[in-house]
Each structure stands twice: as structure tokens, then as C-alpha cells.
Amino acid sequence: MRRTAPHQLHSNDPLKEATLTALKRVVGPLVNLMFDTGVTVHEFSHLMRDSAVRVAAKRVSRASGRDSKSRVAIITGLPRSEVARILKSDAASPSKRVAQHPSRRILAAWHENPRFLSADGDPAVLPIFGKRRSFEQLVALCGRGIPVRAMLDELTQIDAVERLPDQRVKAKSRIPILTGLTGEAIAAIGERTGDLLETLTNNLCRTAESSTDTTYMPRKNLHRKHRPNSKRATEEMNSEPAKVQTL
Fold first, then answer.
1. Could you give the angle at the alpha carbon of 74 between the alpha carbons of 69 and 78, nearest 5°?
2. Global pTM?
3. Residue in 105, 136, 96 with CA at minimum distance from that of residue 38
């Protein structure tokens, strides 16, 4: 008897395949924003797991009138122990609980570790290679296996490091910042995108009896006050391309 290959088991689930395709379209622009602001894939994964558990827990509670970690584990596909840990924890910012971006970790150590500071307390000018105080040793200490050349190329590209004569490097900034991107503008993107996706998914999931030409709007938006700052931030961000700038 011919056995079905594992990858063929999901081929008869068109709704799931369509959803995965839609998610890829949505995630693509977000990934570019992540890279521009130094958010790692690990941080994004942490955020997704945390959000999935909390949303699933609300669905289970609303549908059954009680809490059930086991049902949340079934819905999310996560271990029950992880579900329990997430629900027990505070919904804190992932950046406070997940390791830093590698380039940020390198720059932070260059500005804080006494081993890589000059006599006046500033980041020292370092030789690229060397067994003592060098950029090579800095990357070995904080780079977690990333090659020296790759890290140097990345930091040079974002203008955080300057190459000097005689195979030396100088730190130009502690954290790379993109002009044209502000916290307010990014918050506006999250707010408006979230509202739009909520509207579209609710329209998609309405029952046939309530299907009309009227667009569903999230209840939380019915009495929402106008936010001129968020609107202005979004317009400014869309009208001017982001440029790399360092502090």
C-alpha cells in the first residue's frame, strides 16, 4: 500500500493554505519594519506566542464561561506548561525579556565595558584584529558566533562604525536610528493596521443571516476620539523616506 508523504497531509485544507498565504503577505512589510528598527526574529516569535496565548485564552473564556489552559494549548499548538507560564506572567514589553539584537549588543559593550573604553571613558579606537583589546575580541565576547567581518560590514553599512587607516575602527554611535521613523508614527501604524485587520476578519466571519453591505467596525472605534498627532505622524512618515542617522 502506497503511503502518503507527510507534506501531502495538508494539501486538502484550502482555508488553512489561503490563511498562510495571507499571513505571508501581511508579515512581509512588518518584517522590513522589524529590520529597520532592530527587532529580532526571536523577539517577534516571543511576541507572537505571547499574543496567541492571551487571545486564545479570551476566546475560550468567552465561549465556555471558564478558563482552560488545556484548551488554549490545543488551539495554539503550544505545550500546556508554556501556556501556563505565559498566562501567569505580565504582558511586559518583549524587549525587556528577550536578548538584544547582536549589533546593538556589540555597540552597548563598546560603550560600557571598561575593557573597550579609553582613558577618558569613551569607546576606544580598536584594531580590527588582535588577541588583546580589539574589535575581534569584542565580537567574540558579545557576538555569539557571528563572524568578525560580517559584523563589521553590518555596523559600517548602518554608519555606526568608521573604518580608520591601519586596520582600526571607531565607534560613531551607540544605537542606529532611522530619521523619518518615530515612536508616534510606528504606534499609528500598529493602531490603524490592527483596526483594519479586525474589520476585515470580522466581515469575513459574519454569519450568512447578518451578511449585508454594511462594513463592520470594531466596537472600540465607535466612540474613539480623533487623534491628530497619530494622523500627522503617519502622513509625515509616508511623505518622507527614512534615512539612516546615528547618535
1. 80
2. 0.60
3. 105
Integer CA distances (angstroms), 181 to 40, 145, 185, 198, in order: 18, 31, 6, 25
Domain count, the chain: 3
Distances (CA, A) of 188 to 104, 136, 168, 184, 238: 25, 40, 42, 6, 12
- Nine-digit cell at 122? 569613551
Counting beta carbons within 10 angstroms of the beta carbon of residue 210, is it exposed (0 to 12), middle (13 to 18) or buried (19 or more)? Answer: exposed
Does 30 reside within a domain?
no
Residue 150's domain spans which residues?
102-174
Q: Is residue 14 part of a domain?
A: no
Q: What is the pLDDT of residue 234?
A: 47
Please tell me whether residues 143 and 190 are part of one structural domain.
no
**What is the tens place of the pLDDT at every residue in 149-166?**
999 998 888 788 999 989
